[in-house]
Amino acid sequence: MKILPVEDAVGMILAHDMTEIVPGKSSGAAFKKGHVIKKEDIPRLLNMGKEHIYIMEFKAGDVHENEAAIRMAKAAAGQGIEFSGPSEGKVSLSSKYPGLLKVNFKALAEINSIDEAMFATLHTNQFINENTKIAGTRIIPLVIDEEKVKVVEEICKINYPIIEVKPLKKLKIGIVTTGNEVFYKRIEDKFGPVIEKKFKELGCSVIKQIFSKDDADMIAESIKTLIDEGADIITTTGGMSVDPDDVTPTGIRKSGANIISYGAPTLPGAMFLLSYIDNIPVLGLPGCVMYNDRTIFDLVVPRLVAGEIVTKQDIVKLGHGGLCTGCETCRYPNCGFGKGGLY
């Protein structure tokens, strides 16, 4: 690499983007890679604090920052991802469609252990919308030894994909609403519409809602009816606490479901129940799902809608980061809720 006074660089071609920061107004590339420096550029360059220009002298085995970023992004990206850039040496990765973001965070750590390479992502296992920026990658210097890029590519090959967006399935949802007070129409059901709205956000539709008394056998038969009618996921609402009249967990067991977890290390959502009948998820949703913006529902259900089998260990991991702070204005998923259980 040669260093020239800016006054002597007229006619030279920039090998990298040059950033200009105007406090409170803008930050971006004033001069792009490949720009031929003109005499009239000199005052602006000096105002940017650029009294010298770096002229790249490539040697065999060197890879420019732009090429390196493109190669690393392509090696790491799986389905549902599109690229933008490189800009100032960085390639950004965004989602092509709404879906479940999956990041192999252990392999990501391997990549970031490679000197002079970096790859940053959002947290794994969260629902993201279309055109969401989910990752960015670049190298630290202007050029890097190609062997280092090849190491990154090999890590990606072995652990492919490092990052992907799983499409959500358009599932049919069945709801069993329990409680004598609702069954006998003493009060209006407020839970069902909330569940329907939350599943609609995920591209799913409710095919049927059954109202049941606080009777374990009736709850079990309602679950079986929804399975027979083609429900892909069944939710039961109400009756999930420890009161004597709360028999929903017993009804789920009587339906033949295999209980994976009754209870979750999340607040709100501690009384959540996860079970399966022939790989069909049967959920017991605590009352907090009805009146809290974001709960255990938002941490687990998107994974189910993407076709994943959620295990007991997946639930256990939610404890680290499982406390919602109840912000006055909910910022989820741009907060720590559900983001800590990566180990």
UniProtKB/TrEMBL annotation:
Residues 174-306 form the MoaB/Mog domain. GO terms for molecular function: metal ion binding; molybdopterin molybdotransferase activity. Its cofactor is Mg(2+). One of its GO terms (biological process) is Mo-molybdopterin cofactor biosynthetic process. One of its GO terms (cellular component) is cytosol. It catalyses: adenylyl-molybdopterin + molybdate = Mo-molybdopterin + AMP + H(+). The keyword Protease does not apply. Transmembrane segments: none annotated. InterPro entries: MoaB/Mog-like_dom_sf, MoaB/Mog_dom, MoeA-like. It comes from the Bacteria. Its EC number is 2.10.1.1. Pathway: Cofactor biosynthesis; molybdopterin biosynthesis. Belongs to the MoeA family. Catalyzes the insertion of molybdate into adenylated molybdopterin with the concomitant release of AMP. PANTHER family: MOLYBDOPTERIN BIOSYNTHESIS PROTEIN (PTHR10192), MOLYBDOPTERIN MOLYBDENUMTRANSFERASE (PTHR10192:SF28). This is Molybdopterin molybdenumtransferase. The lineage of its organism: Bacteria, Bacillati, Bacillota, Clostridia, Eubacteriales. The gene is moeA_4.
